[in-house]
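Review the following:
>
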Amino acid sequence: MSVRGTPPARRVRQTRVGPAAPGYYSEKLSGDRLVKCYDVAPPRVRQYVEAEIDFVLGKLCPGDSVLELGCGYEGVALRIAEKAERVVGIDTSAASLALARRLAAPDCRCEFLLMDASVLS
């Protein structure tokens, strides 16, 4: 305790310099499991996702490129690719990315990469 009766602030030091260790999303909530979650989610979840897509589509100009962090399998990148010149989606889940690649049309302007967004600079 400090003199004023409040605990001193804890200092947190980030030591990780490489990609994050596999976590909940990449191990437990990815690929087909994530599909099931969206299938049973209340309609407002789909409305929220659609509103996000509409917002981004409204901001895009011809020739724009988009980077989607944590893209998962879902069709956000696929929908945005209808208007963007190029879309790169990154995720830590190989299963979700494999599903996204299967769902993408052959002429889709999407690229899906397995990587941790925290290592981007």
About this structure: Residues 6-18 have pLDDT under 50 and may be disordered.
